[in-house]
Amino acid sequence: MVTRLPHEDQVLATLRPTQIEKDHVCGIAQRLLAAIAGSGKAQGMVVGSIARHTWIRGDRDLDVFLLFDPALPREALEEQGLALARSIAAAFTDRYHEKYAEHPYINAVIDDVDVDLVPCYNVASAERIQSAVDRTPFHTRYITDKINGLIDDVLLLKRFAKAGGIYGSDGMTEGFSGYLCELLVLRYGGFTPLLQAASEWRLHTLIDQEDHGAKEFDEPLIVIDPVDPRRNVAAAVSLDRMAEFVELARGYLEVPSPVFFELPGPRTITPDKLESLLAGRGTFLYAITFDTPPYIEEIVVPQLKRSTSAISEHLERNGFPVHHAHYRMGASTCMVLFELLVNELPVVRSHPGPPVWNRVNAEKFRAKHIGSALPGPYILDGRYEMEVPREFRRAGDLLASPSLLQVGHGKHVRQSLGAGWKVYEGADCYQPEFMSFIAGFFSRCSPLVRILQEKNPDGSSDRS
User: Fold this and answer.
1) Could you give phi then psi for residue 282, rounded to 5 degrees?
2) Which is it for strands 221-225 and 422-425: parallel, antiparallel or unpaired?
3) How far apart are the C-alpha atoms of 80 and 50, rounded to whole Å?
4) Please, is 361 exposed, middle or buried when counting C-beta atoms within 10 Å of its C-beta (0-12, 13-18, 19+)?
């Protein structure tokens, strides 16, 4: 029998879906399944946390898969699957649209339930999958068969991770998916045993529930998929999110408290506060914004991350040290923030040339630059060097220049930037849509530190 702390039972009472909610969501699911079966074109299957009874009250995300004959060509699956998904959605609501992952699917809002209608192949085993989504039905069957008696533990873990800001395998979070949470609870036999084990995790911890791993992985946390020995379920978990989970586990075991399950409120900042903060830090803030590419987060966010790194390197190469940079994908606009240590540079910079011993290149360099209005070429440490005019004296000029398009962007971000972008400086970077993002940019701390600060805002500690 599982022994829980009193506050854990209190938390669970708020996490379990009510019977009314269950009947409502499951009723919609049954109607959708009946419509799919009635089409005669595919079989319907509810997958995800609702199918596995591991969903948290209020999280009404219903995933319904349309399983097609695996003999159907891939192009036909996309065409026929999308057509069927669209017709099913249209029979229930006019609030639906296409989304794109590995292949297109339909997202709809039916009553107050967010529904994904996803075509896939009805393959006989996970070893025969033809697309990534074909694996999902096997996840649902595996968890459903084994999760009995541990559903409450999964609910606690999901809320614990969400409250810590590490729940979600999306590119912005790089954290723990619902399926990963379920597997971890299964592996360790409960919420508390998992935390006890996680408090001792090390880099490259390996968890293989079925002892059937068939591939080497180098990610920080490795959890072999029980239905696919060549897949790491924890591949999306970044090193920082893993370390934050370890920190949270240690903190909770040391001083268990209901605050570990309380969702953090939105961070706020005003333009005046931002201006004052920058003056106090003595740093320089820049933002670039552009239209959000019309693709899902799984596609856009990794490209945003790549662009942020590439632009940061571009700034650094031109003499503007980047103290901190981050990105955010909004519904209609993306923002990338850069906090710089230097905002303006001198007119001149040093330009290194070849070593004198490299006779051919050294003579070419000397001949090319003789007569320059600036000093040089001169010899320093055995090689030619000279002074040249700096291309960009101000960071804002660099960020506004066409050179921004020449760095390593992902395809869709580059296309959006190609249509135009805006540059903001200082307190002008403030935009209501990105208020929480900007506030969080300047209030970085680990999840446990945030929880302890909120619990004891005066800085005192209740630890003995």
Assistant:
1) 70, 20
2) unpaired
3) 26
4) middle
- pLDDT tens for the chain, 464 residues long, are 568 999 999 999 999 999 999 999 999 999 999 999 999 999 999 999 999 999 999 998 999 999 999 999 999 999 999 999 999 999 999 999 998 777 789 999 999 999 999 999 999 888 888 888 999 999 999 999 999 999 999 999 999 999 999 999 988 899 999 999 999 999 999 999 999 999 999 999 999 999 999 999 999 999 999 999 999 999 999 999 999 999 999 999 999 999 999 999 889 999 999 999 999 999 999 999 999 998 888 889 999 999 999 999 999 999 999 999 999 999 999 999 999 999 999 999 898 999 999 999 999 999 988 888 888 899 999 999 999 899 999 999 999 999 999 999 999 999 999 999 999 999 999 999 999 999 999 999 999 999 998 877 554 444 43
Closest of 145, 114, 141, 148 to residue 45, by C-alpha = 141
Burial category of 445 from C-beta neighbours within 10 Å (exposed 0-12, middle 13-18, buried 19 and up): exposed
Place of tokens 């969702």: 263
For 9, 33, 136, 285, 334, the CA distances from 303, given in Å and listed in that order, are: 42, 36, 25, 22, 11
Q: Are 81 and 42 in contact (CB under 8 A)?
A: yes
Establish whether the linkage from the previous residue to 321 is cis, with ω within 30° of 0.
Answer: no
Total length of the chain? 464
Question: Is the model's pTM score more than 0.90?
Answer: no
How do 333-340 and 322-329 pair as beta strands? Answer: antiparallel
- Return the structure tokens found at 71: 């003999």
The phi-psi region of residue 340 (left if phi > 0; otherwise alpha if psi is between -120 and 50; otherwise beta) is beta
| Encoded tokens for 4 | 């829980």
What are the two backbone dihedrals, phi and then psi, of residue 146, each rounded to the nearest 5 degrees? -120, -10
For the record, the structure tokens of 392 come out as: 């960009």
For every residue of 232-272, DSSP letters joined together read ETTTT--HHHHHHHHHHHHHHHHS--GGGGSPPPPP---HH
For 114, the enclosing helix (H) or strand (E) is strand 113-121
